[in-house]
Amino acid sequence: MKTAFIALSALAIAPFAAATDIQITYSPEFQEKLQDDYGVKEGDKLSEDIRGDLEREFGKANLDPARVTVTIIDAKPNRPTMEQMSRRPGLDMLRSKSLGGMELHGVAYDASGAPVGEFEYDWFENDITQVVAAGVWSDAGRASRRFAREFAEELSGSFD
Length: 160
Description:
Elements: H1 2-19, E1 21-26, H2 28-38, H3 40-60, E2 67-76, H4 82-87, E3 101-109, E4 115-124, H5 138-155
Parallel strand pairs: 1-2
Antiparallel strand pairs: 2-3, 3-4
Organism: Henriciella algicola
Signal peptide: 1-19
Protein name: DUF4410 domain-containing protein
């Protein structure tokens, strides 16, 4: 029964998620961090998470912009990335932790290409005692989820 409900819920959201073209880019500074420190694959991981968060929140809000562009302005991991650990043998996935988060800028467009909403959001943990992150990008994931939810709320009045 649960499986059927989950499948039906996914079908209800799918038309909205599939219709919106979501393009994610990086600021030049963050692109440089990916290339020089974090590893380029980490940008793909963050992009997938942001795309999924936006699709989920837009689906919940019944939003269907034609296109959305998101720029990752900055992001900081909570744990060392694979690239960082390969370059610095002293780092440890379990014991090394830091303050993480992400800054994002998004613009939604209608079918004619006109912008219908713009939203900027950033959140970075500021207390190391609160970093109980299990994953490399835990705080960045939190920022992405909040960005998507608040962007959807911001856009809700634009598509009435």
